[in-house]
Every structure is written in C-alpha cells, then in structure tokens.
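I am still getting used to backbone structure tokens and would like to learn alongside you. Please make up or recall a protein chain and show it to me in full. Would you write everything just below, so we can both look at the same thing?
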Amino acid sequence: TKKAGKNYGPPGQKKLVYFVDDLNMPRLDPYNTQTPIALLRQHLDYGHWYDLEKLQVKNVGNTQYVGCMNPAAGSFVINPRLLRHFVTLSVGFPDKDSLMTIYSTFLNGYLKNFDPSITERVTKLISAGLYLHQKVSSTFRKTAVKFHYEFTVRHVTNMFQGLLAAERDVVKTGESIVKLWLHEATRTYGDLLMSKADLSTFEQIVRTSAKKYFPSDKEELIFSNPNIFCYFARGLGDKKYADVPDFEVLSDLQHEALREYNDVFSIMDLVLFEDAMRHVCRINRIIETGHALLVGVGGSGKQSLSRLASYISGSEVRMITISKGYSPADLKVNIAQMYVLAGQMDKRISFMMTDSQIVDEKFLVFINDLLASGKIPDLFPPEELEEVLGAVRPMVKAAGIVDTNENCLDYFMSRVKANLHMILCFSPVGEAFRVRARRFPALVNNTMINWFHAWPANALQSVSEKFLGDLDLGTDQVKNSIIEFMPFSFVAVNEACTSFLNQERRYAYTTPKSFLCLLYTSDAADEEDSVDLGGRRFIKKKNNQESLRDIEELEKRQRE
C-alpha cells in the first residue's frame, strides 16, 4: 500500500516476505542477462523500483526475500551480485528416520481401523518403499536422453499416497496391502521408464524388495497378474479404488464404456488389447487426483485412450483450437473458461493438450503455473474475478466459512484443483521435449508420467485382425497369412531401423501410425480388384479363390 510520498509497503507495521520459487528459471536474453533477476537486485541494492508510467521512484520498504532453486533445472549460474544478499543453505534428501516418522504418521492414522495384519505391516511397507527408492535412484541414473530420471521425495510421497486410497472392503489382508504397494510403486517408478530393458530391471528390483521385507507372503497373492488398481474395477458408476480380477473383466468394463462413449460422441474405433487397457487404467488413476504426462510417438493412442479414460471418470475433455492468430492471450481466455466450469460450476474437466498445439513457447508459462500451483497471475480481469467470487460466495457460507474475498478465492481454487486435470500428450522424438522440461520443470515434477512403449506383437496382431478380418481377401488360409504378415512386416522394419541406427548412427522412425496407414491402405484396396501388400500386388479372383502360387509367394516373403 502507499505510504507517505513515494514510499510503499505492507499495511501498518507489518512486514512482507516475498517467496520466489525457482529463482534460477528465467532464461538468458541475447545479452546474457536475466531481467527478473535484475529487477530483484535493483530493489535489494537500492530499495526502490521505477514506475515506468509516471517516471518516478517507488521506495518499497519492510520487505524481505526468500528464494529457492533446483540446481538440476534452469540456469546453473545466478548473478553473484544478487546472491550476496542471501544466506545460502543447501537442503539435501531427508534421512531415513525423518521419512519414517513422516510417512508412519499418515499411514498409521489412515490404516488404524483396518485389519491388524495390515496395520502391523506399516513399518515394513515404509522400509520397503525407502529401500526401493534408494535402489531405483542408484540404478537409473539421469542422462541427457533420460533427463527425467530424477527421483526425489515427491516420488516416495506419490508411492505411499496410493495406499491412502485403500478401502476396508477392498484391502482386507496383509497380502492385499502389499499387492497395492507393489502396484503403486510400479505406477510411480515403472511407468516413467523409457525402455523395455529398464522396465525389466525395475521389475527385478521391485520383486527383490518385496521378497526381502515380506518373505512369508505367498508370491501368487502379491505378484498376481494382472496387478491393476483403478477407479472403475467394481463398475463404471462405482468410483472405488479396487483391483481388477482378470483381463476378461477389465475388457468387458472398457468395451462397455467404449460403446457408451460412441453412443454419445463421435465414434472411436479402438482395439482394446492388453497394453491399451493397462494405459486406460493408468490414465484413469492419474486424472482422479492429479495431472498426466503421456509420452509416446505419434499414433500410440494417447489421445484416444485419454478420451475413454476421461469418459469413465466422468470428465469432459477440452482442447484448444489452434488458428492462425491464436496467441497466449487466447490461451488465458480458454483456461479461464475451464476454471469457471471447474471451480464455479463444479464440473470435471480434462484439459488435453498436445505438443503440436504449443505454437508459442509462452503457452508453457501458463501451463507451468497451472501444474505447479493452479494460480495463474492475472488470469481474470478485476470485474470478472468479482463475478466469480460473488458466484461462489453462497457456497462458502454454506460450508461454514467466513465469506471474505480471500476465503472465497481459496474455495474457488480448491474446487479447480479437484476438478480440472491436465493431460499432456508429448512425443519423445527430437530435442523439444527435453528442452521444455528443463525450462518448465512443472511439466515433469508436477505430473505423473506414463510412457507409451512400442506396441507388442500380440497388439499388432489384434489390430490387424480388427481392420482386415471383415475384408474379402480370398480363402481363409490367404486371409490369415495376410493378417499375420502385417505385424510381421512392421516388426521386421523396426528391427531394420535399429540395425540402421547401430551401423549408420542415423534414426529412422516407425510409429504405430505407420502401421495403421498400412492397414488403411489395405482396407481401401478392398474396393478394387487387388490388394497391394508390401510392394507386391495380389490379384483377387472373382470366385474368391486364391491360387496356390500366390499363397506360396506370401509364405516365402514371410520367411524372408
């Protein structure tokens, strides 16, 4: 507030503390300076700023600064003329005793009314989790390519937070709580690993950890397959965090949801093979409580599976529409509209955004704020903010809270955080993803990562049968050969690309979208008198009979 003359400061005799998070995040300009850092240093050095409109000095007093920074993100050098004003303290990873005290307080408090066989395992669960975290941190090191392999206390918290979603009628025995812990550990650490080799190594580590701390538990109970917990295991309308008994039940639930989705929205012709169903469960689990970062090459099914998972969660999917003149100001307007829907109207929103929609890097400034705290500076103009606060004021009173503007805003933001969840769909190809994650750390730190690996052979076979099963391709023997050749050819090209990389040090990418294009081409060719398969055209006989010569040619090509 304004004091006498040119002096400004907090009201009365109060002191104001500015907390500056990510002090090292401002990017360098062409002159190797950082404007925000220069403004902070000006105030600390001289105690004032300049008003550029009135061209006069504003003396700001009774203020202090507390800053923090992550040395693994942003700039690695801070202006020493700024740092000389600060007392620098290094905060390391908490010791084991501190973490045991923290997590045992939460788990003991939540699980105290569960079966005694569960409560007596709390200490072992925490010890096993900390041991697993230590092994994962030492095994999977951060590199230039695996830049997101940075495991912190946040990961430990996410692992144990899943245990707080357990319910007594679901988790009834000691083995079941261990099974839930193994699931949460895999979701927290395993889902962000970017290669099948790393995932295999992690599975060995997690099995070793479980056997070390729970040697008497039956392996068929704690290592059951599938080990999947989601919020629709007991039915699409029953949001209870429970395990799925088998893939047959899971398939029935997701196909039912897909049929309902296609009745309401434009039809999605999805093939729900095992990996796809697993990803739907993971996305559903994430968007119930937080934000999702889906990483995979084009055509992996990130958007389609996200739409299905959002429908199961009862969330409305919102995406921005990029036009020629779409600017950061337009993005703020779209985000403000979603905030009103989520905070004022109490609607569940899944805000889905792809990396191709980031036409301006300034978009990520708002996305980073949304992910980190949910508070985007100047999101609403003053008059619109008054309307929003006025709309939620009756709800604040009904909740028994004093309806001050600050309390109304906090209530509004709490509902936004509960209802608005982001789904970021990024591709790992190229440098863009790595650079953006370094400049905007909330993209990785404040999301749950789900890495889409290459489709397995059984998934390719299922998709091939889906698209080609109804086509007239001759005899059953020929049709089966063609259907089997499609995934065979895709896997063969992938192996050739790997060999090409090893020999020539050059990348050649094949994506699931390439495989789908091949199938679409075959589907379109069904309307003609021939099918073009792998560069060879097979003529379809009018009497639907293929000659033995064509069958032998196809089988020979498969062997080659």
The radius of gyration is 28 Å. The first strand starts at residue 7 and ends at 8. The CA atoms of residues 171 and 293 lie 29 Å apart.
